[in-house]
Amino acid sequence: MRSALSSTNKRRAGFTLVEILVALAIVGILMALATQAISSSLQHKRREDTRLSTQQNLRAALTLIAQDLRSAAGLHVWNQSSCGASAACSNHTRVSIVTLDGTSTRVAEPPGNSFTNSAETRVCDASEFQDGDTAILLNGSEYQLMQITHVHHRTPGCNSSPPEKLQHNTTRISGLWSPAAYIFKAQIATYLLQTDPLDPSQTVLFRRTGLGTPGAQTGVVAFGISRIQVWYGVPLNPSDPSSQLVFYETLDAAASALGGTYSAYPNVPGSRYVGNEIRAIRVALTGQSAELLPNGARDTLTLSQTVDLRR
C-alpha cells in the first residue's frame, strides 16, 4: 500500500517527458506566431511608409502643376500641330500652360492697318522685354503667341523716333490692328515625361519653359513618375457661364465636339481657338515608389486633381 502511494506522489511531483515535449511544442508555436505577427506588422508598416512617400511625391508634383494652371491667362494652354518629343503643346500626355508675369506694353501700330507675316511690332515701351522672351499679343479679342528675338529699345513713347520695336523673326504674325492692342510678357510651362537622367529605365515628370530653347526654371519636378494624363473641360454651351463641363482627352476632340467653328490650334483663319473656352483641366499622375516592397515590386499609385481656370 505504501509503495503504491509513493509511486503516485512521485508522478504528481513532476512532469512526464510527454508533457514537457507538448509544452515546448506549444511555446514554439506561440513564438512562431508572435514572430510572424511582428514580421507582418513590420512589412505592413514598410508598405504604408512606402505608399506615404509615393503619395507625398505625387501631391507635391500636382500642387506645382495646379499653381501654374491657376495662373493661366489669355490662351490658357498652348498647342501646335507639330508636337515633337519635347515641343510645347497640349494633348493627353502633356500640357503647355500660358502664364503672365504682369509686364506689358501698348502696341504703337496705327489702328486699322493690316499686317501679314510680320516679324516686328512697334510698341510704346520695350524696356521691360529681353531677347528670348515669350510674349502674347492681345489684338482686340484675338491672341497670338510670339518669341521675341531682338528688342529695339531706344526712346520710350508711342510716337518716339526711332520707334521702340519688338522683333519676332521665328513667330511671325498676321491680322488687322485694333485700336487697343497690347503685348504681355508670358511664360510657357510644359509638363511632360522624360527619361530619368540618373536611371534610364525610369521616367520623371519634367517642367520645360519656353517655345524653343529651354528657358529658366526648366528641370525635373518629380522622380518616379511613370504616367501623366490630361483632360480638358469645355462647356456644352460656351455662351453659358454655368454650363455643364465635358472633359476631353485632346483639344482636337474638344474642338470637334463644339463644332466646325472651333480649332485645336491658335491663329487658324475663320476659327476660334478652343483653348480659350477651356474652363477646367484635370491632371492624373501615376508614380512608383523609390524603394521596393517586401515582395520585390514597386508600389504604384495614381492621384488626380481638377483645377478651374481663371476667366
UniProtKB/TrEMBL annotation:
Localization: Cell outer membrane; Periplasm
InterPro entries cross-referenced by the UniProt entry: N_methyl_site, Pilin-like
Chief site of localization: membrane
SUPFAM superfamilies attached to this UniProt entry: Pili subunits
Keywords (A to Z) from UniProt: Cell outer membrane, Membrane, Periplasm, Transmembrane, Transmembrane helix
Protein name, UniProt field: Verru Chthon cassette protein C
Gene Ontology cellular component terms for the protein in this record: cell outer membrane; periplasmic space
Keyword flag Lipoprotein: no
Membrane topology: Single-pass membrane protein
Membrane-spanning intervals of the chain: 12-34
